């Protein structure tokens, strides 16, 4: 690829960090090369806002910190942020016309914590509008294209984040996951991504879609880079009412995830040639049934055999309410969206219709002009299920099903397994424009990811192979119990030490 960024010469954030601190290259050089690559790959439509002055200012500050002998964990590392995380300087649009020119007066906690860790931001990444979508086709600024096939979707809603990492434009990126929006695009773009336990990462400054489901997390090429980002991202935030102060008795703060990762790695090393000896992998029978394409099923099966060769034991389990996760999610999430998006009325900030007669007409026209079809669809559904006479029949029932889904996971972990594995998506990436006339088909494709969000569990995706008819990436989903991010990353790292799927890049399969 022309204009290949300098950071792609390094296999990991750790290797890049060592080179920076040894003076082999500078953060400013890294930033310049990445900005040139972003310009050269505008065809991907991965970035919505790039400001070279802001980026280079951060890079110069990183170089100064290294020169002063005070580098932080991510000093000089080039990243970018999904455009539902607000940022000072860069626009924060949620990929919507409603916020097309909005600039936040503050940074999201995730953004500020990564900046404090020294990361250099290259800008804001495209996504589905207000994170509502599974293919990054609902963005008001056009679809993102998959670096493996420009005619295919990258997955959504964090499609810009996944495409930017897969194309080598950034070392890592932030994403958000409401129903699979980190794991699914990571899978379809052949990279890794993790959704942490709900409440472990601050939601302050995350433009809300569904408040009880949204959770930010990192996207990178492999598990150890995810750890490098998740460590500073996670932690209690007193300004976020959904933020957890303690995680299974341990303070939700620096070192919690890394210490559990290191402990898991130490256990693996003691086991020698069978590092995962004794690990029980639950494979839900509901994840391998009708609707799963044969090539995805084969790639997942091959990955499971690799885990078995590393000492793990496969256990068949049941998550009997898997199919119910779809109707439960698509009642709860739109209901919360209906409430969250009511603030966009044209009165305080954001888009306002130019022509209207009175206040009600102004609000109606503003929302019709500012929101795209998918957002309007979900807001209407959410408003309907919250109406008097329908609340008990739909919303309350969905919340009851949500609790039963969470209980199913807890029963599996308590009685049968340590982690759960299966596919992320039923197929490889579809062509841009598929299902345009049938949005429900995209909703059904979220069947393997939604239950995790409804239960608030941590889960991740790692590359595990390619399709046969269409040679596009396949992702393996690894689900853990609450607060097990470190253990999940260690299991994924062990798999990636034994395979090279995460090292494959577009054009170098």
Automatic annotation (TrEMBL):
Any idea which residues are catalytic in this one?
82 (charge relay system), 157 (charge relay system), 181 (acyl-ester intermediate)
Q: What is its EC number?
A: 6.3.5.7
Q: What keywords sit in the KW lines? A: ATP-binding, Ligase, Nucleotide-binding, Protein biosynthesis
Chemical reaction(s) catalysed: L-glutamyl-tRNA(Gln) + L-glutamine + ATP + H2O = L-glutaminyl-tRNA(Gln) + L-glutamate + ADP + phosphate + H(+)
Q: Which InterPro entries match?
A: Amidase (IPR000120), Amidase_CS (IPR020556), Amidase_dom (IPR023631), AS_sf (IPR036928), GatA (IPR004412)
**Which residue numbers delimit the Amidase domain?**
32-489
Role summary:
Allows the formation of correctly charged Gln-tRNA(Gln) through the transamidation of misacylated Glu-tRNA(Gln) in organisms which lack glutaminyl-tRNA synthetase. The reaction takes place in the presence of glutamine and ATP through an activated gamma-phospho-Glu-tRNA(Gln).
Q: Which NCBIfam families match?
A: gatA (TIGR00132)
Q: How does it assemble?
A: Heterotrimer of A, B and C subunits.
As for family, the record states:
Belongs to the amidase family. GatA subfamily.
Protein name as annotated: Glutamyl-tRNA(Gln) amidotransferase subunit A
The organism named in the record is Yanghanlia caeni
């Amino acid at each position: 690829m022309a204009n290949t960024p300098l950071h792609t010469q390094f296999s990991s954030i750790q290797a890049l960090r060592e080179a920076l601190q040894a003076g082999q290259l500078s953060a400013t050089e890294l930033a310049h090369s990445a900005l040139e690559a972003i310009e050269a790959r505008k065809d991907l439509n991965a970035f919505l806002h790039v400001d070279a002055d802001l980026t280079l200012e951060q890079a110069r500050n990183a170089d100064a910190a290294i020169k002063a002998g005070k580098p932080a964990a991510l000093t000089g590392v080039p990243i970018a942020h999904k455009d539902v995380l607000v940022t000072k300087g860069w626009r924060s649009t949620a990929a919507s016309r409603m916020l097309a020119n909005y600039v936040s007066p503050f940074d999201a906690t995730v953004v500020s914590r990564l900046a404090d860790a020294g990361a250099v931001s290259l800008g804001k990444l495209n996504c589905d509008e207000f994170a509502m979508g599974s293919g990054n086709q609902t963005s008001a600024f056009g679809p993102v294209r998959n670096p493996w096939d420009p005619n295919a979707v990258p997955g959504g809603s964090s499609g810009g984040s996944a495409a930017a990492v897969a194309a080598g434009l950034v070392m890592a990126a932030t994403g958000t996951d409401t129903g699979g929006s980190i794991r699914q695009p990571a899978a379809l773009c052949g990279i890794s991504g993790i959704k942490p336990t709900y409440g472990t990462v601050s939601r302050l400054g995350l433009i809300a879609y569904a408040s009880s489901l949204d959770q930010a997390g990192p996207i990178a090429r492999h598990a150890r880079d995810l750890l490098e980002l998740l460590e500073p991202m996670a932690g209690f935030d007193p300004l976020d009412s959904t933020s957890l102060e303690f995680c299974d008795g341990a303070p939700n703060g620096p070192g919690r995830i890394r210490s559990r990762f290191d402990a898991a790695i130490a256990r693996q090393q003691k086991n020698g040639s069978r590092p995962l000896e004794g690990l029980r992998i639950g494979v839900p029978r509901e994840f391998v049934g009708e609707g799963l394409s044969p090539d995805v099923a084969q790639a997942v099966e091959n990955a499971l055999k690799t885990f078995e060769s590393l000492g793990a034991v496969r256990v068949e389990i049941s998550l009997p309410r898997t199919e119910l996760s779809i109707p439960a999610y698509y009642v709860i999430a739109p209901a919360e969206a209906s409430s969250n998006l009511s603030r966009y009325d044209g009165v305080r900030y954001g888009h306002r219709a130019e022509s209207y007669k009175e206040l009600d007409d102004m609000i109606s026209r503003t929302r019709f002009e500012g929101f795209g079809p998918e957002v309007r669809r979900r807001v209407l559904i959410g408003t309907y299920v919250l109406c008097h006479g329908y609340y008990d029949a739909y919303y309350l029932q969905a919340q009851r099903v949500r609790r039963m889904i969470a209980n199913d996971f807890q029963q599996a972990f308590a009685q049968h397994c340590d982690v759960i594995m299966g596919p992320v998506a039923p197929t490889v990436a579809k062509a841009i424009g598929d299902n345009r006339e049938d949005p429900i088909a995209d909703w059904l494709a979220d069947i393997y990811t939604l239950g995790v969000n409804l239960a608030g569990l941590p889960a991740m995706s790692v590359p595990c192979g390619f399709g046969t008819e269409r040679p596009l990436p396949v992702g393996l989903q690894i689900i853990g119990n609450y607060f097990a991010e470190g253990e999940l990353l260690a299991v994924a790292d062990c798999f990636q030490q034994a395979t090279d799927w995460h090292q494959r890049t577009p054009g170098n399969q």
